[in-house]
Amino acid sequence: MDDLKARAVRGGFARLCGQVANLALRIISMAVLARLLDPEDFGLVAMATVVTGVYGLFTTAGLSSATVQQATITDQQVSTLFWINIGVGIALAAMCAASAPALVAFYHEPRLFWVTIATGAGFVINAAGVQHSALLQRQLSYVTLTAVELLCQVGSTVVAVCMALAGLGYWALVAATIVSPAIGTGCMWLATGWIPGPPRWGRGTLPMLRFGGVFTLNGLVVYVAYNFEKVLLGRFWGADALGVYGRAYQLVSIPAENLNAAIGGVAFSALARLQHDPGRLRSYFLKGYSLVISLTIPTTISCALFSKDIVLILLGPKWLEAAAIFRFLAPTVLIFGMINPLSWLLLAVGRQGRSLAIALVIAPLVISAYLIGLPYGPRGVAIAYSAAMTFWLIPHLAWCAHGTAISLADLLLIVVRPLLSGIVAALLAFVVQTQLDEWGTPAVRLLLEGGVMLSIYCLMLLLVMGQGAFYLDLFHALRSSSMSDRTASLG
User: Fold this and answer.
1) Cα-flanking dihedrals φ and ψ of residue 59, to 5°?
2) Can you give the pLDDT at residue 15?
3) How many helices (H) and strands (E) does the chain have?
4) Alpha-carbon span 103 to 106, nearest angstrom
């Protein structure tokens, strides 16, 4: 268990550093492409990816998570899952080709035909690396996984920017979706050195398929729930409106996605190894949850208070309309920061059925909110979506925690101290913001306002709220892990 803790801390730190770099790359890519391409280009690709993204949920068929979740697994089982993934990838590429005419007719946009077909190629490529990635996750080899993800991001960004500079418009965005999985799959094969054998059905395969099926269905329901507004906006308000909303949505989702990617994969792998040890599982989960919340709250404040300057810096003046939408969506950063970690817990202990039931409740709730806000355009949809998720937060936490080693009180107690620290920091940053008004450039204003907010938040959290000991312990665990690695390499 000590080795598990060391690997989890080391892997978590590697993922966190990697996601910081990944976030920087994504922001740079977004900033450059936003200046080279028009809102219509982004809206056009979003029209296709809203649908092809549904197919993308079936690429892994939940089988990568099934591989990670199992206490023990054989090479024969992994090989069988590999060939299932390949078959699914081919089927999804065919479905993309079949869906292209329907998308053209629905949106009245002929350019979607070849965009949709080209996107399908990525499914086959991605499917070939699913089980290789899962094997690295089982081993908590997150340093390798992080390096691969960074290579994918760099490669796809370079290709997209070069194509945009060449005047290829929306095809730059399409190419990025194909290049990224191609690089990733190639690197995964090299990193693991694992070559799949022939498929063979065994007694242990069926439970893994059942787990993967429920996991995939859960992902499908969640995807539809959180992306249906894009279908509505594209159909009734057009590509420009969808492009503006989509950029704001991407901006606000990047922090939660990167944080969940940084900590979630490591947490799931570690918690799955502890699923039969409730005491240690509770301790590990709450420490990880505390870290996520403490990072999420200042991010939420930044999105809400500094939305205009963030949009001006990252997207440019022609995207200023996205600033208000970005601000209205800001509460969801904190909400997803609070609810996403609960999925790690439920899946790690094999309660994927409950996760699916929760998703089936969320879906009609947020879709109803979209329909209420739709007559008022992208802003109305953003406000209604944030309101619905805020209303749902406490019931979601209570339902997830019920009957597990974690209680609702545990979760709320963890949130209190960083939340109070965040409120104080936000108030002082707001005072500074009113004094600066339109002074200086957006970058200078953001640096000053954000610096004040982050400094006050850290002082409040670490000193006033007494969280310094927690982060000191985390630092010592990371240092011990690094020292043990060096000792092992010397030995």
Assistant:
1) -60, -45
2) 65
3) 19, 0
4) 5
Which residues, in sequence order, are CB contacts of 323 under 8 Å at separation 6+? 248, 307, 308, 310, 311, 312
Residue 363 burial (CB count, 10 A): 18
Token pair recorded at residue 456: 């006050």
Per-residue model confidence as pLDDT tens digits over 134-149? 888 777 677 788 888 8
CB 213 within 8 A of CB 61: yes
* Tokens representing residue 131 in the block: 């089980």
Q: Quote the mean pLDDT of the chain.
A: 81
Query: Using one digit for the tens of pLDDT, what is the confidence trace for 226-258?
Result: 888 988 888 888 878 888 888 888 888 877 777
Q: What is the DSSP string of 354-408?
A: HHHHHHHHHHHHHHHHHHHHGGGHHHHHHHHHHHHHHHHHHHHHHHHHTTSS--H
For residue range 376-389, what is the model confidence (pLDDT) as tens digits? 999 999 999 999 99
- Is residue 288 over pLDDT 50? yes
Q: What is the C-alpha separation between 21 and 23, in angstroms, rounded?
A: 5
Q: DSSP labels for 145-196?
A: HHHHHHHHHHHHHHHHHHHHHTT-TTHHHHHHHHHHHHHHHHHHHHHH----
Q: Are 297 and 457 in contact (CB under 8 A)?
A: yes
pLDDT at residue 303 is higher than 70: yes
Structure tokens given for 468: 């310094």
- Whether pTM > 0.70 for this model: the answer is no
Q: What is the largest CA-CA distance in the chain?
A: 69
C-alpha dist (Å) from residue 16 to 23, 63, 157:
10, 25, 21
